[in-house]
Amino acid sequence: MSHPADTRDWIRVLAQYREPSLARSLWVVTNTLVPFFAIWAVAWWALDISYWISFACAIVLGFFLMRIFCIQHDCGHGALFKSKRANDWLGRFVSILTITPYAVWRKMHAVHHETHGNLDRREMGDVRTLTVEEYYARGPAGRALYRFYRNPLFLFGLAPFILFFLQYRLPVGLWHDRKYWISAMGLNAILAVLLSAMYAAGGWAPILIIFVPSVLLGALAGVWTFYVQHQFEDTAWSRPPDWQVHDAALYGSSYVALPRWFAWFTANIGIHHVHHLYARIPFYRLPEVIADHPVFAETNRMSFMDSLKCANFHLWDERQQKILSFREAHRTYGTGSMAVVPAE
């Protein structure tokens, strides 16, 4: 099948998939939220029988929270319903479950879509990525701090907790606008009421055995999924005037071909290159794009096992136009100052 040579021409093609189906949208909300609340009820009931049963339920709830977060994500893009109001109200509701303030996250994610892959605009919504030159220009302490930040134990261990339990409690980076304060503080107030009611009804057990583990697991899955969408071997970064948003969307975003059950829990977000090219496509229509346009099935394709290797990438090399591990950078440029890096 022929396909556009220019990534911008894909927009016209992909626009055919943007219309949501009300029945399908309502169904994906139902088949996600009904089991989620049912499993929560079982987990609470099981607290009187075995904490291990409740904790096992919390693990399942974590996977559901990943899917719920993706529903919030689609609402933020105005993709799930034709009505902006319907998208926003559903997004606000499920944001209580994901403990992620809807307006704050939507703005940060919009900036990510507008700037991803642009080395001159690494503002917010991205995993911080330094170029080789920037890394070597730092002093020993600065390099050590960046290495700590990029360590998998931090990125996929401590960082999800910091991001969801601490950072999202404030409109970090969006201090100037009252609506983002309302979004964050309003959600905080709702969470305070819900957690207080949870404590009054069951003490610390439902909070520590069900709520915290499920949210933390969902956060970890979310951070990992987001990470591999852009931090992969064949990703693309550049600076203006070479940077172009549609090229960055297609070539700087991955396609992680996940098992069907995992794709369900992640709401097809692994088809990320298509999503970045046309964010208004509802997640349940992304497989249609792959089926109709096989070129997308081969572009930046990774298996789940392939995606695990992405944790080894740390620095963007502008000279070679590729992402490197710390070991590769040190092997190529040494471990000293930036003076050892060849000029362009």
Structure, described:
- Helix content is 61%, strand content 4%.
- It has a three-stranded mixed β-sheet with strand order 1-4-5. A two-stranded parallel ribbon has the order 2-3.
- The mean pLDDT is 92.
- A hairpin with a 4-residue loop joins strand 4 and strand 5.
- 37% of the residues are buried.
- The protein is mostly helical and 344 residues long.
- The protein is globular, with a radius of gyration of 21 Å.
Structural class: mainly alpha
Main sheet strand line-up: 1-4-5
Describe the biggest sheet?
3 strands, mixed
Distance between the termini: 39 Å
The coarse overall form would be globular
Whole-number mean pLDDT: 92
* Radius of gyration of CA atoms, rounded to a whole number: 21 Å
User: What's the total number of strands?
Assistant: 5
Task: Give the % helix.
Answer: 55-70%
* Helix-strand topology string: HHHHHEHHHHHHEHHHHEHEEH
Map the helices and strands:
Layout: H1 10-14, H2 22-46, H3 51-76, H4 84-98, H5 102-115, E1 130-131, H6 132-137, H7 140-149, H8 152-166, H9 178-202, H10 205-230, H11 245-251, E2 255-257, H12 260-265, H13 272-277, H14 286-292, H15 295-298, E3 301-303, H16 304-308, E4 315-317, E5 322-324, H17 326-333
